[in-house]
From TrEMBL:
It comes from Flavimobilis soli. This is Putative Zn-dependent protease with MMP-like domain. InterPro entries: Zincin_1, Zincin_1_sf. GO terms for biological process: proteolysis. Residues 1-46 are annotated as: Disordered. It holds the Pfam family Zincin_1. GO terms for molecular function: peptidase activity. Transmembrane segments: none annotated. Keywords: Hydrolase, Protease. Residues 34-43 have a biased composition (Basic residues). Gene3D superfamilies: 3.30.2010.20.
């Protein structure tokens, strides 16, 4: 197939700078992160949603806020018992489930007892919760269920004692 690009006229070899020695002009490499185009006169593209608006948060940030709100609500009633307990969010559970989790499917949360210098820790797994939920309200309900169940396990109490409005979850 013939080359359809137009060649620039060639000057004698001795008269051209090194960049033009092949007959094709070369452009300098663009600076990193510099926008060079303003298509159709509308200006350079900007962010769709400014970073200070709530809609600019990621799913992970919204999930963290749901877990934090759930924990804060529980701490109002159980502050003394939950003092020093760490709450965390991880994307997915580790690939080696605990022996009691083997037949129950993918865990949505896990309680790790204190071990030496490490404090009690409750972890909520974001992706399994999001996969089971239909919308944001259901995510909040599942998170509430998971956190209440794990706190109840940690304190050796029933979930209904921890949260009187507790409803058995997924």
């Amino acid at each position: 197939m013939p080359d359809r690009r137009r060649r620039t006229p060639r000057a004698p070899e001795g008269d051209l700078p090194a960049a033009y020695s092949s007959g094709w002009p070369t452009l300098p490499a663009p600076a990193a992160g510099v926008r060079r185009r303003d298509r159709r006169g509308r200006g350079l593209r900007g962010p769709l949603i400014p970073a200070h608006l709530p809609a600019a948060r990621t799913r992970a940030e919204r999930f963290d806020e749901i877990v934090l709100a759930t924990v804060e609500r529980l701490e109002r009633s159980w502050a003394k018992q939950l003092a020093g307990t760490e709450f965390a969010v991880e994307d997915v559970p580790p690939s080696d489930p605990a022996p009691w989790e083997h037949r129950r499917g993918v865990p949505m949360g896990r309680y790790f007892p204190a071990d030496g210098p490490l404090a009690h820790r409750i972890v909520v797994y974001r992706r399994p919760v999001e996969e089971r939920a239909v919308d944001r309200d259901e995510i909040a309900e599942i998170v509430r269920t998971v956190v209440v169940e794990q706190v109840a396990h940690m304190l050796g109490r029933s979930p209904e004692e921890i949260d009187p409005g507790f409803v058995e979850g997924p």
